[in-house]
Amino acid sequence: MVLKKNNIEVYPVNVPASNKLKSFNFFLVKQENSLTLIDAGLNTDDCWNALQKTLKDHDYILTDISGIYLTHHHTDHIGLVNRIVSTHDIPVYAHPYAKLVLKRDTQYIKMRVEFFRKLYQEMGCGEFGEKQVADLRNPIILGENKKIHCEIQEITNNHLFGFDIFEIPGHAPDQVAFYHKECKWLFAGDLLIQHIPSNAMVEPDYDGTRTKTLVQQKLSLEKCLSLNVEIVFSGHGIIIENPVDLLTERIKEIDEKANKYINIIKSGISTASGIAQLRYKEKYEKQFFNIMSQIIGYLDYLESQGKINKEMEKGIWNYYL
After folding, report:
1. 3, 6, 146, 218 — which has fewest CB within 10 A?
2. pLDDT-based confidence at 142, cuts 50/70/90?
3. Domain encompassing residue 76
4. Residue 250: inside a domain, yes or no?
5. Residues 6+ away with beta carbon under 8 Å from 255
6. How many CB atoms lie within 10 A of CB 146?
7. 33-47 per-residue burial string, b: 16 or more CB within 10 A, e: under 16
8. DSSP code of residue 282
9. Model confidence over 93-109: pLDDT tens digits?
10. Is 50 contained in some domain?
Protein backbone atom coordinates (compact mmCIF):
# COMPACT_ATOMS: atom_id res chain seq x y z
CA MET A 1 0.00 0.00 0.00
CA VAL A 2 1.28 3.46 -0.94
CA LEU A 3 -0.30 6.86 -0.34
CA LYS A 4 0.88 9.67 -2.63
CA LYS A 5 0.16 13.38 -2.64
CA ASN A 6 2.14 16.55 -3.46
CA ASN A 7 5.34 14.56 -4.12
CA ILE A 8 5.05 12.88 -0.71
CA GLU A 9 4.79 9.10 -0.44
CA VAL A 10 3.88 7.08 2.64
CA TYR A 11 4.61 3.35 2.92
CA PRO A 12 2.74 1.99 5.96
CA VAL A 13 4.28 -0.88 7.91
CA ASN A 14 1.40 -2.84 9.49
CA VAL A 15 2.08 -5.77 11.80
CA PRO A 16 -0.99 -7.75 12.97
CA ALA A 17 -1.62 -7.92 16.74
CA SER A 18 -3.58 -10.64 18.51
CA ASN A 19 -4.98 -8.22 21.10
CA LYS A 20 -7.55 -5.42 20.92
CA LEU A 21 -5.04 -3.09 19.24
CA LYS A 22 -5.43 -5.15 16.02
CA SER A 23 -2.08 -4.00 14.61
CA PHE A 24 1.14 -2.14 15.28
CA ASN A 25 1.68 0.58 12.68
CA PHE A 26 4.70 2.62 11.74
CA PHE A 27 5.40 4.57 8.58
CA LEU A 28 8.10 5.21 6.00
CA VAL A 29 7.71 8.70 4.52
CA LYS A 30 9.50 9.79 1.34
CA GLN A 31 10.01 13.53 0.84
CA GLU A 32 12.28 14.73 -1.96
CA ASN A 33 15.57 12.91 -1.30
CA SER A 34 14.85 11.78 2.27
CA LEU A 35 13.21 8.66 3.68
CA THR A 36 11.99 9.04 7.26
CA LEU A 37 10.66 6.40 9.63
CA ILE A 38 7.85 7.63 11.91
CA ASP A 39 7.74 5.36 14.97
CA ALA A 40 9.43 1.97 15.11
CA GLY A 41 6.98 -0.69 16.25
CA LEU A 42 7.87 -3.40 18.74
CA ASN A 43 11.27 -5.02 19.13
CA THR A 44 10.15 -8.26 17.50
CA ASP A 45 11.14 -10.24 14.44
CA ASP A 46 7.64 -9.68 13.02
CA CYS A 47 8.13 -5.90 13.09
CA TRP A 48 11.72 -6.15 11.81
CA ASN A 49 10.74 -8.43 8.93
CA ALA A 50 7.75 -6.24 8.04
CA LEU A 51 10.00 -3.18 7.89
CA GLN A 52 12.53 -4.99 5.70
CA LYS A 53 9.78 -6.23 3.36
CA THR A 54 8.22 -2.78 3.02
CA LEU A 55 11.62 -1.30 2.20
CA LYS A 56 12.32 -4.00 -0.37
CA ASP A 57 8.86 -3.68 -1.96
CA HIS A 58 9.65 -0.04 -2.74
CA ASP A 59 13.27 -0.59 -3.82
CA TYR A 60 14.88 0.68 -0.63
CA ILE A 61 17.26 -0.79 1.91
CA LEU A 62 17.73 0.02 5.59
CA THR A 63 20.57 2.48 4.94
CA ASP A 64 18.24 4.65 2.86
CA ILE A 65 16.41 5.72 6.03
CA SER A 66 17.67 9.20 6.98
CA GLY A 67 16.04 9.63 10.40
CA ILE A 68 13.54 8.28 12.93
CA TYR A 69 10.76 10.43 14.40
CA LEU A 70 9.04 9.14 17.55
CA THR A 71 5.49 10.18 18.44
CA HIS A 72 5.93 9.05 22.08
CA HIS A 73 7.99 6.79 24.33
CA HIS A 74 5.76 3.69 24.64
CA THR A 75 7.51 0.42 23.86
CA ASP A 76 5.30 -0.43 20.86
CA HIS A 77 6.49 2.74 19.13
CA ILE A 78 10.24 2.60 19.79
CA GLY A 79 11.01 -1.12 19.54
CA LEU A 80 13.29 -1.23 16.48
CA VAL A 81 15.27 1.95 17.21
CA ASN A 82 18.30 0.21 18.73
CA ARG A 83 18.31 -2.47 16.05
CA ILE A 84 18.23 0.09 13.24
CA VAL A 85 20.73 2.54 14.71
CA SER A 86 23.21 -0.19 15.66
CA THR A 87 23.69 -0.94 11.96
CA HIS A 88 22.85 2.47 10.48
CA ASP A 89 23.74 5.54 12.56
CA ILE A 90 20.97 8.07 11.95
CA PRO A 91 19.35 10.75 14.15
CA VAL A 92 16.40 9.86 16.36
CA TYR A 93 13.99 12.68 17.24
CA ALA A 94 11.57 12.82 20.19
CA HIS A 95 9.91 15.27 22.56
CA PRO A 96 12.29 16.49 25.30
CA TYR A 97 10.15 14.79 27.98
CA ALA A 98 10.66 11.44 26.25
CA LYS A 99 14.42 11.54 26.66
CA LEU A 100 14.38 10.80 30.41
CA VAL A 101 12.23 7.74 29.82
CA LEU A 102 13.97 6.49 26.70
CA LYS A 103 17.41 6.78 28.31
CA ARG A 104 16.13 5.27 31.60
CA ASP A 105 17.47 8.21 33.61
CA THR A 106 18.15 6.91 37.14
CA GLN A 107 16.67 9.85 39.02
CA TYR A 108 13.60 9.91 36.79
CA ILE A 109 12.94 6.20 37.34
CA LYS A 110 13.33 6.63 41.12
CA MET A 111 10.90 9.56 41.06
CA ARG A 112 8.48 7.52 38.96
CA VAL A 113 8.29 4.72 41.54
CA GLU A 114 7.58 7.18 44.35
CA PHE A 115 5.01 8.97 42.17
CA PHE A 116 2.93 5.80 41.78
CA ARG A 117 3.34 4.81 45.43
CA LYS A 118 1.91 8.15 46.57
CA LEU A 119 -0.75 8.20 43.85
CA TYR A 120 -2.17 4.76 44.61
CA GLN A 121 -2.15 5.46 48.36
CA GLU A 122 -4.08 8.72 47.87
CA MET A 123 -6.56 7.01 45.55
CA GLY A 124 -7.45 4.44 48.21
CA CYS A 125 -5.85 1.42 46.53
CA GLY A 126 -4.38 0.21 49.82
CA GLU A 127 -2.28 -2.95 49.93
CA PHE A 128 -3.06 -3.92 46.35
CA GLY A 129 -1.78 -0.57 45.07
CA GLU A 130 1.35 -0.91 47.20
CA LYS A 131 1.90 -4.40 45.79
CA GLN A 132 1.77 -3.00 42.25
CA VAL A 133 4.56 -0.62 43.16
CA ALA A 134 6.58 -3.11 45.23
CA ASP A 135 6.49 -5.60 42.34
CA LEU A 136 7.58 -2.80 40.00
CA ARG A 137 4.80 -3.62 37.57
CA ASN A 138 5.14 -2.12 34.13
CA PRO A 139 4.79 0.81 33.47
CA ILE A 140 5.76 1.93 36.99
CA ILE A 141 9.33 1.07 36.19
CA LEU A 142 10.68 0.67 32.71
CA GLY A 143 13.03 -2.20 32.00
CA GLU A 144 16.65 -1.56 31.09
CA ASN A 145 16.22 -4.03 28.23
CA LYS A 146 14.10 -1.42 26.41
CA LYS A 147 16.50 1.46 26.98
CA ILE A 148 17.45 3.46 23.88
CA HIS A 149 21.22 3.44 23.51
CA CYS A 150 21.69 6.13 20.86
CA GLU A 151 21.57 9.87 21.38
CA ILE A 152 18.08 11.40 21.30
CA GLN A 153 17.66 14.63 19.34
CA GLU A 154 15.12 16.75 21.21
CA ILE A 155 12.30 18.30 19.21
CA THR A 156 12.50 21.88 20.44
CA ASN A 157 10.56 23.85 17.84
CA ASN A 158 7.34 23.48 15.87
CA HIS A 159 8.81 22.42 12.55
CA LEU A 160 10.93 19.44 11.49
CA PHE A 161 11.92 18.65 7.90
CA GLY A 162 8.60 19.23 6.18
CA PHE A 163 6.37 18.62 9.20
CA ASP A 164 4.65 20.98 11.60
CA ILE A 165 4.96 19.61 15.15
CA PHE A 166 2.04 19.68 17.57
CA GLU A 167 2.16 18.58 21.18
CA ILE A 168 -0.80 16.24 21.79
CA PRO A 169 -0.41 14.94 25.38
CA GLY A 170 -2.98 12.79 27.12
CA HIS A 171 -2.15 9.24 26.09
CA ALA A 172 1.46 10.08 27.02
CA PRO A 173 2.94 13.33 28.35
CA ASP A 174 5.49 13.42 25.52
CA GLN A 175 3.20 12.57 22.60
CA VAL A 176 3.59 14.72 19.49
CA ALA A 177 1.95 14.73 16.07
CA PHE A 178 3.72 15.29 12.76
CA TYR A 179 1.50 17.28 10.41
CA HIS A 180 2.16 17.71 6.70
CA LYS A 181 0.22 20.88 6.03
CA GLU A 182 0.09 20.70 2.23
CA CYS A 183 -1.27 17.15 2.27
CA LYS A 184 -3.36 17.60 5.42
CA TRP A 185 -1.85 14.35 6.69
CA LEU A 186 -1.35 13.83 10.42
CA PHE A 187 0.87 11.19 12.02
CA ALA A 188 -0.72 11.17 15.46
CA GLY A 189 0.68 8.21 17.38
CA ASP A 190 -2.09 6.85 19.61
CA LEU A 191 -4.24 9.97 19.89
CA LEU A 192 -6.92 8.61 17.56
CA ILE A 193 -7.66 4.93 16.88
CA GLN A 194 -10.59 3.95 14.66
CA HIS A 195 -11.93 0.94 16.57
CA ILE A 196 -11.30 1.88 20.23
CA PRO A 197 -10.90 5.07 22.29
CA SER A 198 -7.28 5.76 23.19
CA ASN A 199 -6.44 5.55 26.90
CA ALA A 200 -5.28 8.69 28.68
CA MET A 201 -2.50 7.11 30.75
CA VAL A 202 -1.67 8.51 34.19
CA GLU A 203 2.08 9.12 34.32
CA PRO A 204 4.29 11.70 35.99
CA ASP A 205 5.40 14.68 33.99
CA TYR A 206 9.17 15.07 33.61
CA ASP A 207 9.31 16.95 36.94
CA GLY A 208 7.13 14.48 38.86
CA THR A 209 3.85 16.39 38.76
CA ARG A 210 0.61 14.61 37.87
CA THR A 211 -0.93 16.11 34.79
CA LYS A 212 -4.67 15.96 34.14
CA THR A 213 -4.38 13.46 31.34
CA LEU A 214 -8.00 13.30 30.18
CA VAL A 215 -8.22 17.10 30.15
CA GLN A 216 -5.11 17.04 27.95
CA GLN A 217 -6.55 14.28 25.78
CA LYS A 218 -9.69 16.26 25.04
CA LEU A 219 -7.69 19.40 24.24
CA SER A 220 -5.44 17.37 21.92
CA LEU A 221 -8.45 15.91 20.09
CA GLU A 222 -9.90 19.42 19.73
CA LYS A 223 -6.55 20.69 18.42
CA CYS A 224 -6.51 18.01 15.73
CA LEU A 225 -10.14 18.70 14.84
CA SER A 226 -9.27 22.35 14.22
CA LEU A 227 -6.62 21.37 11.64
CA ASN A 228 -9.22 19.97 9.21
CA VAL A 229 -7.06 16.89 8.64
CA GLU A 230 -7.86 14.60 5.71
CA ILE A 231 -5.95 11.49 6.86
CA VAL A 232 -4.75 10.39 10.30
CA PHE A 233 -2.00 7.79 10.32
CA SER A 234 -2.80 5.93 13.53
CA GLY A 235 -0.48 3.78 15.63
CA HIS A 236 -3.01 0.93 15.64
CA GLY A 237 -5.80 -0.33 13.40
CA ILE A 238 -6.65 1.24 10.07
CA ILE A 239 -5.52 4.51 8.54
CA ILE A 240 -8.33 6.98 9.23
CA GLU A 241 -9.68 8.96 6.27
CA ASN A 242 -11.83 12.06 6.82
CA PRO A 243 -11.45 11.83 10.61
CA VAL A 244 -13.71 14.78 11.53
CA ASP A 245 -16.66 12.61 12.54
CA LEU A 246 -14.50 10.24 14.60
CA LEU A 247 -12.72 13.12 16.35
CA THR A 248 -16.10 14.69 17.16
CA GLU A 249 -17.38 11.34 18.44
CA ARG A 250 -14.35 10.77 20.70
CA ILE A 251 -14.74 14.27 22.20
CA LYS A 252 -18.46 13.67 22.81
CA GLU A 253 -17.75 10.26 24.39
CA ILE A 254 -15.63 11.90 27.09
CA ASP A 255 -18.54 13.95 28.41
CA GLU A 256 -20.98 11.05 28.10
CA LYS A 257 -18.73 8.75 30.10
CA ALA A 258 -18.01 11.48 32.67
CA ASN A 259 -21.72 11.59 33.51
CA LYS A 260 -21.60 7.89 34.48
CA TYR A 261 -18.95 8.68 37.09
CA ILE A 262 -21.10 11.49 38.49
CA ASN A 263 -23.88 8.94 39.05
CA ILE A 264 -21.51 6.55 40.83
CA ILE A 265 -20.34 9.35 43.17
CA LYS A 266 -24.02 10.23 43.77
CA SER A 267 -24.56 6.66 44.97
CA GLY A 268 -22.05 7.24 47.78
CA ILE A 269 -18.82 5.72 46.37
CA SER A 270 -16.22 8.39 47.06
CA THR A 271 -12.71 7.02 46.35
CA ALA A 272 -11.09 6.33 42.99
CA SER A 273 -10.37 2.75 44.00
CA GLY A 274 -13.95 2.22 45.16
CA ILE A 275 -15.31 3.57 41.89
CA ALA A 276 -12.92 1.34 39.91
CA GLN A 277 -13.91 -1.80 41.79
CA LEU A 278 -17.64 -1.08 41.47
CA ARG A 279 -17.43 -0.36 37.75
CA TYR A 280 -14.93 -3.02 36.67
CA LYS A 281 -15.23 -5.74 39.33
CA GLU A 282 -12.78 -8.62 38.63
CA LYS A 283 -11.04 -6.62 35.86
CA TYR A 284 -9.83 -4.18 38.54
CA GLU A 285 -6.89 -6.36 39.53
CA LYS A 286 -6.16 -7.79 36.08
CA GLN A 287 -6.04 -4.41 34.32
CA PHE A 288 -5.15 -2.26 37.32
CA PHE A 289 -2.97 0.38 35.65
CA ASN A 290 -5.29 1.05 32.71
CA ILE A 291 -8.41 1.10 34.87
CA MET A 292 -6.94 3.40 37.51
CA SER A 293 -5.63 5.69 34.77
CA GLN A 294 -9.12 5.94 33.35
CA ILE A 295 -10.84 6.57 36.70
CA ILE A 296 -8.31 9.16 37.84
CA GLY A 297 -8.47 10.86 34.44
CA TYR A 298 -12.25 11.23 34.64
CA LEU A 299 -12.19 12.43 38.25
CA ASP A 300 -9.63 15.08 37.32
CA TYR A 301 -11.74 16.06 34.32
CA LEU A 302 -14.93 16.42 36.38
CA GLU A 303 -13.06 18.40 39.04
CA SER A 304 -11.62 20.75 36.39
CA GLN A 305 -15.17 21.43 35.21
CA GLY A 306 -16.36 22.20 38.72
CA LYS A 307 -18.79 19.26 38.72
CA ILE A 308 -17.17 17.47 41.67
CA ASN A 309 -14.95 18.41 44.60
CA LYS A 310 -12.51 16.44 46.72
CA GLU A 311 -11.13 16.48 50.23
CA MET A 312 -8.48 14.36 51.87
CA GLU A 313 -9.41 12.09 54.76
CA LYS A 314 -6.69 10.02 56.43
CA GLY A 315 -4.41 10.43 53.43
CA ILE A 316 -7.04 9.40 50.86
CA TRP A 317 -8.88 11.66 48.43
CA ASN A 318 -12.66 11.49 48.73
CA TYR A 319 -14.77 12.88 45.91
CA TYR A 320 -18.21 14.40 46.30
CA LEU A 321 -20.72 16.51 44.33
Report:
1. 6
2. confident
3. 3-103+148-242
4. no
5. none
6. 19
7. eebbbbbbbbbeeeb
8. T
9. 999 999 999 999 999 99
10. yes
